[in-house]
């Protein structure tokens, strides 16, 4: 198969050469043979013509013996057999036999012709000498009639000998020519098929994906044009292929960037394409080629896809995948009979909804107690019992209501997403000094020491000064509320590219189990203690929102009974 074309062309040439060689051999042999025979016959004829006068003389003299002796003498000399025959066929003389013993020759073809006045010629097997012979019969004409026939004959084996010499010569020449022709045809076949082989190899490389393949022919025939066209073709193919790859990558990027889980199923319901987010719904990488019911184990999802396929139009449905609430949207692809499914994880939305509900319940709950106390106090006032204790209850609970509402307002304000309204260069040290000044009397009253540790050159951040102050107030307030003896320190400093604010106390501390929850709204560890201290459970939520609004982090370390440290890290301003 590999060199089929070469073998075909070369094989054809070989056959042609052999045929021509054989034909020319056969033709030349027959031509040469007949040429020799004709030449020999002609020379026999002229030989006979030369003998005619002597034969005529002997005949005229009626000297039969003399005639026979004459032919017997001349035959060997001339290298031919001579016979003189009377018109009736009787042999009068013969150079090789006794004429008396020879049969009548009247019906030999050459004799017959000669008797009729023409030169007769014949070629046949002679039983007399037992060899193939060439005969020429000449009429000896006297006064218009044939007096006798002089016949010369020659062994054809003589011609064969001549031919045999020639044959080897011719055969050799033909062989040499055939060899030359074969070499030429082999070269010609190679020349003709080498570009085909090159093109085939190049095409194979292109089929294997090597589009940089090019062919170059130095010849000036159609193959050169074919090579040029081949190169143009691969170049265009390369361009198209790169385009396709780029488009595919773009598509993969776009699909990968979609946060919803996206999957495409073909007409059989097998997965053709999925983005990485889709893996959230399948529990591991979804394998291409698997059926949709194998990939997502959810009755709702399977029903959604089945209906989309049956109705040939898109749908939307809510269902669960495991524990997850999911919103699924499908579109039907008419062209491929396929389905595109987009799955949206509703967990976060549900969580926020839940939080909102909880919040409303919590707020109502927090407001209910002071309101109930207030309405009771008002009732006693109405009953005329306006003692000092009732007024005190009224005052404390009104304050508490005020504190809750204020904290709620702050929280609402800080929860507003987006950047803080003011971004100014703020010196944190200045703010901290102000807050400490504000709290100092209360610390003194409780017998606690309060100190500030800060670098002398100040700490500047780009921030909202009012919110930074609020955050410090809440942290220092908590330190005051939950510390019974010892000291509270506010430490400022730099760490990496960040400004660090720390509020450290020697208070009651927080048990590890509670630490993750204290930043939640209304969450307090010890309700009565918090309330006694005037807490609302919103202070740390506000801190967290302020810190996150500034792109910072807040964390807590605590040892129950020993103390607590809150650490806030804010990105420093470029000039800080
Ligand atoms: P509260 O208004 O009750 O202080 P916060 O949101 O400020 O509410 O704090 C939530 C809870 O975290 C508090 O009730 C308290 O139990 C705990 N907590 C906060 N700060 C400290 C602290 N410095 N030491 C001990 N516990 C604290």
Write a concise keyword list for the protein shown above.
576 residues, alpha+beta, Beta-Lactamase, five-stranded antiparallel beta sheet, 15 helices, 17 strands, binds adenosine-5'-diphosphate
Q: How would you describe the overall organization of this protein?
A:
The chain has 576 residues and is of the alpha+beta class. The chain folds into five domains: 4-162, 2-Layer Sandwich (Beta-Lactamase), CATH 3.30.450; 218-257; 258-345, PAS domain (Beta-Lactamase, 2-Layer Sandwich), CATH 3.30.450; 350-414, Helix Hairpins (Orthogonal Bundle), CATH 1.10.287; 419-571, Histidine kinase-like ATPase, C-terminal domain (Heat Shock Protein 90, 2-Layer Sandwich). The protein is built from 15 helices and 17 strands. The protein has a five-stranded antiparallel beta sheet. A five-stranded antiparallel beta sheet has the order 7-6-10-9-8. The protein has a five-stranded mixed beta sheet with strand order 12-14-15-17-16, covered by helices on one side. A hairpin with a 3-residue loop joins strand 16 (553-559) and strand 17 (563-571). Helix 9 (347-382) packs antiparallel against helix 10 (388-415). The longest helix has 58 residues, at 4-61. The relative contact order is 0.05. The structure holds adenosine-5'-diphosphate. Adenosine-5'-diphosphate binds at residues 478-479, 481-482, 505, 507-510, 518, 523-526, 530, 535-541, 564. Residues 478-479, 481-482, 505, 507-510, 518, 523-526, 530, 535-541, 564 line the site of adenosine-5'-diphosphate.
């Amino acid at each position: 198969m590999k060199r089929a074309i070469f073998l075909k062309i070369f094989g054809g040439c070989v056959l042609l050469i052999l045929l021509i060689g054989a034909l020319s051999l056969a033709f030349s042999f027959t031509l040469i043979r007949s040429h020799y025979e004709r030449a020999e016959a002609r020379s026999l004829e002229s030989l006979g013509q030369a003998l005619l006068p002597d034969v005529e003389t002997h005949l005229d003299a009626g000297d039969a013996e003399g005639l026979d002796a004459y032919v017997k003498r001349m035959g060997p000399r001339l290298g031919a057999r001579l016979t003189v025959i009377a018109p009736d066929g009787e042999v009068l003389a013969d150079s090789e036999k006794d004429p008396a013993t020879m049969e009548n020759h009247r019906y030999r073809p050459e004799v017959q012709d000669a008797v009729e006045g023409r030169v007769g010629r014949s070629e046949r097997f002679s039983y007399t000498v037992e060899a193939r012979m060439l005969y020429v019969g000449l009429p000896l004409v006297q006064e218009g009639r044939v007096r006798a026939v002089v016949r010369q004959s020659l062994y054809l084996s003589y011609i064969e000998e001549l031919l045999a010499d020639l044959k080897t010569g011719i055969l050799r020449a033909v062989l040499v020519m055939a060899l030359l022709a074969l070499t030429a045809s082999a070269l010609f076949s190679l020349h003709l098929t080498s570009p085909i082989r090159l093109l085939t190899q190049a095409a194979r490389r292109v089929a294997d994906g090597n589009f940089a393949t090019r062919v170059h022919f130095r010849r000036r025939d159609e193959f050169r044009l074919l090579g040029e066209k081949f190169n143009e073709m691969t170049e265009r193919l390369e361009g198209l292929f790169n385009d396709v790859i780029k488009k595919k990558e773009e598509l993969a990027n776009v699909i990968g960037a979609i946060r919803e889980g996206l999957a495409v199923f073909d007409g059989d319901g097998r997965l053709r394409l999925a983005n990485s987010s889709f893996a959230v719904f399948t529990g591991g990488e979804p394998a291409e080629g698997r059926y949709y019911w194998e990939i997502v184990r959810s009755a709702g999802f399977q029903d959604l896809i089945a209906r989309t396929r049956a109705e040939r139009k898109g749908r939307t449905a809510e269902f669960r995948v495991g524990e997850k609430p999911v919103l699924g949207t499908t579109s039907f692809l008419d062209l491929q009979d396929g389905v595109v499914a987009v799955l949206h994880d509703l967990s976060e939305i549900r969580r926020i909804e839940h939080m909102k509900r909880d919040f409303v319940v919590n707020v109502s709950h927090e407001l209910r107690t002071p309101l109930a106390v207030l309405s009771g106090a008002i009732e006693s006032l109405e009953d005329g019992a306006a003692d000092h204790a009732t007024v005190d209850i009224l005052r404390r609970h009104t304050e508490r209501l005020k504190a809750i509402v204020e904290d709620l307002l702050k929280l609402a304000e800080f929860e507003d997403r987006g950047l803080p309204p003011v971004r100014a260069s703020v010196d944190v040290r200045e703010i901290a000094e102000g807050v400490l000044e504000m709290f100092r009397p209360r610390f003194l009253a409780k017998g606690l020491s309060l100190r500030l540790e800060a670098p002398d050159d100040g700490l500047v951040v780009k921030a909202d000064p009012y919110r930074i102050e609020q955050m410090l107030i809440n942290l220092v307030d908590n330190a005051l509320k939950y510390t019974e003896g010892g000291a509270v320190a506010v430490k400022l400093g730099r760490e990496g590219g960040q400004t660090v604010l720390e509020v450290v106390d020697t208070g009651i501390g927080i048990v590890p189990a509670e630490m993750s929850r204290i930043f939640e709204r209304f969450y307090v560890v010890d309700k009565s203690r918090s309330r006694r201290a005037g807490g609302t459970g919103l202070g740390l939520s506000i801190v967290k929102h302020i810190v996150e609004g500034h792109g910072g982090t807040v964390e807590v370390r605590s040892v129950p009974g020993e103390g607590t440290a809150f650490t806030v890290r804010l990105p420093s301003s470029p000039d800080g």
